[in-house]
């Protein structure tokens, strides 16, 4: 699957199932919110199929919505009630490195029966997510994740603010998550389903006709890019991976979203309650309704046209590419095994791939010499994607970059966050694989 720049720029993405704002119970004392990694149950298949067991945060999948104001001190006490190590890692954020929660790089994983405290103040507002990141060669646990919102000082006026998380589940005949998808001869799952906030869709969201809705969209589908389409809605993308952008409308009301990517979409609903308003997932030539808006009551008076969220003043207006440290990372298939920069890259190397001083500009090139679509991720920093044919850059910031088969993508950033930061490349295929390295900012 190849994605050209025009198709990606003018596309949009969606994930669905409204999520009520609930937080980890503040019973840990000292101002900490207690968050337990524990077992959870989901009704993914209709009775008489049993409920599906999964790991989760706070006894649910997704984990509880953690919501704070910009500049507010976040204090989380994670208790591990599972039989495996866990961590608490906030994704796409530019927080202090010691709180990044990367097992084997920034901390030792939390062992069963133990707990660990996390305290930090994110410098940026935005929509993000958290996960367990205990082992570098492990894929994202299908249940150990949840949404994180850092509110702007003055959020735009909307009638509803909804978190919609798209999930993917490969189940066996007993409705349980397959534990050995890579095992030779394992075959296809008995059931493969997509959910909205771990509820089989489509979900129904009630609004007034003409209402304005802010959708916080997150995809946890790890095996492919999700193409989400809007019908009967007027969507504007207001932020990507937590960072505001000059708002734009997606081409054909559809956008692609990779695993772990976040989108803020402002939608004006039709003024006529009889008009259909639907969000649909399109993959592999099939369509699946994800969410519908049920409009009831008196039409909402029209709101002023939405412009854009304020730009983040902490991000650079320009990056000096001529002075930048230039690194080329090649992903290739060597005798049936993927390598990153010539190494297996299944664990974090003893030494960083490169080291730079704080404030130095960096240009990274990701070259995909495989027949598989890749997604690259850089921790702790916001990236500008450089154009393939000129010296400009795309008009938004990213944490995740899609690299097509046999192609290369170039990104630039200012290394302004001290510490040890992950660079990860994940394959987008039925059984995703992850390669990792790291760099240091001193």
Secondary-structure topology with pairs:
Layout: H1 5-9, E1 33-42, E2 52-57, E3 66-69, E4 74-80, E5 89-91, E6 115-120, E7 126-131, E8 145-151, E9 160-171, E10 191-196, E11 199-200, E12 203-207, E13 212-220, E14 226-231, E15 234-240, E16 243-248, E17 254-257, E18 262-268, E19 278-283, E20 286-295, E21 325-334, E22 337-340, E23 355-356, E24 360-369, E25 374-378, E26 383-386, E27 393-398, E28 400-403, E29 408-415, E30 419-427, E31 434-441
Parallel strand pairs: 1-4, 3-8, 9-13, 12-20, 21-24, 23-31
Antiparallel strand pairs: 1-2, 4-6, 5-7, 7-8, 9-10, 10-11, 13-18, 14-17, 14-19, 15-16, 15-18, 19-20, 21-22, 24-29, 25-28, 25-30, 26-27, 26-29, 30-31
